[in-house]
């Protein structure tokens, strides 16, 4: 038993190493005095100081995060409601039809999505910029949220809901007290994935942006014409470390809170028994 | 539920904070007033110091937005919804934009310094009398080789690329017109041919090149060549000069039998709004000292004759980038062949790419 | 459950109409126009008539299959063993985290790692094998594409395994099944939906990969996505690009109906 366990860990370590090798590679070269990503000639903070004095770049980072946080929040809300709607459809043909429509944006190449959104926005006379980028990001993030929430709904035990209604719960109470807590992991996963999609997107944003508004990936592509500058490496390194701290911090805070909550509940129950 | 609500509120609070930071940064850069000129340019295609200088001199603000292909820029300008004041298309795209009525004619009386431009680069087929465009940079298509792997006399002409010596050694730039054009010139035809026999022959000739082709890539070609990834590359002079700045073993050759001559040009798209600033900027860029400074920064050849004199001798006399009269006389400029013909060029190129395996 | 009040999902329906159906209609409409703007079936004729596009489609499907298979082979054991660790949710988050770094940057990192003077070749030289051509090979393209897709495969499989009732596994063990039997007869069938979701999330995007085909594959592999990108951005032949897009979407709908809900429902009803 013990031996098998170490093999598993070895495998997991291997996969994690694989996933993180390119990222550590990027971070390593962000300290390269040589200015390229192949020959390490010496250590320098230069690329980081460049980054901090580049106020246009900082503005772009801020805008990118704003778009990602906001669009994924709205997409999660709309997508969760959409998943509930799909769940309540009984006929499998209709259900599959809606699901197919839902998935079209997931499978269409970004270039097609971007071009058709551009035509759509200009057709409506929409000014390109923050608003059009935000709407597009919401639009292409919704399907992944639906796909994350729907399985949770499908596996939910219907008797739970029946019991709640029998006990006199209103529709809203059923939703907020029974359904929502049950599907919450799916909702969070959906938010997380929507956020990922938004950060990653280049092609759609490129088409629908304008009037001075840019996101990080568009800027990176524009700068890549001259080869990637290590300032971008420095930025990625900072963002990576920041999100790592955020994720680990959030996780342990959560753990701490939930364990405190259970302890509190135990104490409460104990006093009640007394 | 409570946790979810606090989660949502938390995100909204962060968003508000980010929004305030963003608008504060925008104000700090002074980009919110109406006197802002929007330049729609290729990435890193102007010296940022020049923009600062322009802003100091004239009081106008400049915002630079970037595109990565002529066609993407065309789509954005055609669809509207933006307010680009100046754009920098290549010559065939000037012609195409003109036909699509996307350009505003230049008011010549407001332009000073057009005489600085080498007359060779004015009044060309894509824009007679320069009614719509002012040349910005120019260059050629040619061969880059690495002297550690290849001797100079082995790559002087297009036909040398077909030599079995270069098996899996050549990188091509991912551009249908340029690679088809290369094969057409090698066979002694015009780069603007519409003759299907010549085009088919060119495609066949390219298929024979397949074993020598290592990769067909875009901007990355500079990095690959600088890193000694391949011995030979077919690319544009501007890209070549950048690779050579990073790797002293690289050299650039314009085959004497002929090649492509290209231009990037300043034009006023129909989305333009701030005409005073536009003409101020065009005139600013036509001034020899500014054009020379820009050419030094970007590394491309300037069409500005007066500026050429201000460049270091080693640059202005370098036959790789400022070729002699005889070579220049063999160079051909692309014409817009219309969508159907361009489609045929692209299909042939796609077939060539797929021929690889 | 009482019927879900459709008023709440108004926004979702609006989204489907505005951002799915409208672009879809636009694409289908455009696919009937040739490059000069004439109404025609020529695009479909060109697609199904010339060997070039069909060959490209087969090629594309073949590479997408290889990428999906490699991704699945790496991801399933990862998801399975990840489930047995302490703090498994944290580890899962850490699997997703690399996707937050820009794709182009990761591609450039791989170029640095795989190039002639890169880290891998330094290692190969060091152990005496000597430098190899790694970039622009099919193997490196498939490897890097799989790298990009792994997190999207692990996530659904992980969730499926997470929901697996451990008593089934215990029962199987108690009844004397070997580890392999438990896996192939109990665990894998019960997590097949996660695998399906993962395959859907990886296979179809793999058909339309475009940037990696150029950066890592050197344009020696042409996928449907590459062709669409070319037609939209270079040739400006939006009609042909849309036609390939329509083919992709039809393929997706077929895959959805084959692997979709219906079967699962049927099995549950039995």
Task: Describe this entry's structure for a reader.
The complex is a heterotrimer of chains A (274), B (357) and C (270). Chain A has 274 residues and is mostly helical. Chain A contains eleven helices and no strands. Chain A has a domain at 62-233: MetI-like fold (Orthogonal Bundle). Chain A has helices at 2-29, 46-53, 55-88, 92-107, 110-123, 130-154, 158-166, 171-200, 203-208, 216-223, 230-273. Chain A is globular and about 70 Å long. Chain B is globular. In chain B, helix 6 packs parallel to helix 14. With 270 residues, chain C is mostly helical. Chain C has a single domain (67-259), classed as MetI-like fold (Orthogonal Bundle), CATH 1.10.3720. The model of chain C is unreliable at 262-270 (pLDDT under 50). At the A-B interface, helix 3, helix 5, helix 8 and helix 10 of A face helix 1, strand 2, helix 3 and helix 7 of B.
Radius of gyration of chain C: 23 Å
**Level-2 CATH architecture of the domain at 62-233 in chain A:** Orthogonal Bundle
> What would you give as the CATH superfamily of chain C?
MetI-like
The percent of residues in helical segments of chain C reads: over 70%
Task: Indicate the mean pLDDT of chain C.
Answer: 84
Amino-to-carboxy terminus distance of chain C: 22 Å
* Greatest contact between two chains: A-C, 84 and 92 residues
Distance between the termini of chain A: 44 Å
**Record field, number of beta strands of chain C:** 0
The arrangement of helices and strands of chain A along the chain is HHHHHHHHHHH
CATH class wording of chain C: Mainly Alpha
Question: Summary?
Answer:
Chain A has 274 residues and is mostly helical. Chain A has helices spanning 2-29, 46-53, 55-88, 92-107, 110-123, 130-154, 158-166, 171-200, 203-208, 216-223, 230-273.
Strand and helix layout:
The complex is a heterotrimer of chains A (274), B (357) and C (270).
Chain A: H1 2-29, H2 46-53, H3 55-88, H4 92-107, H5 110-123, H6 130-154, H7 158-166, H8 171-200, H9 203-208, H10 216-223, H11 230-273
Chain B: H1 2-29, E1 36-42, H2 48-58, E2 61-67, H3 70-79, E3 86-87, H4 91-99, E4 103-104, E5 133-146, E6 170-173, H5 176-186, H6 196-209, E7 213-217, H7 221-226, E8 232-236, H8 237-246, E9 250-253, E10 261-269, H9 275-286, H10 288-298, H11 305-310, H12 313-316, H13 325-329, H14 339-355
Parallel strand pairs in B: 1-2, 1-3, 6-7, 6-8
Antiparallel strand pairs in B: 4-10, 5-8, 5-9, 5-10
Helix pairs in contact in B: 5-6, 5-14, 6-14
Chain C: H1 10-30, H2 42-49, H3 51-82, H4 88-96, H5 103-114, H6 119-126, H7 138-163, H8 166-174, H9 179-190, H10 192-207, H11 211-215, H12 224-234, H13 238-259, H14 261-269
Helix pairs in contact in C: 2-3, 3-7, 3-10, 7-10, 8-9, 10-13, 12-13
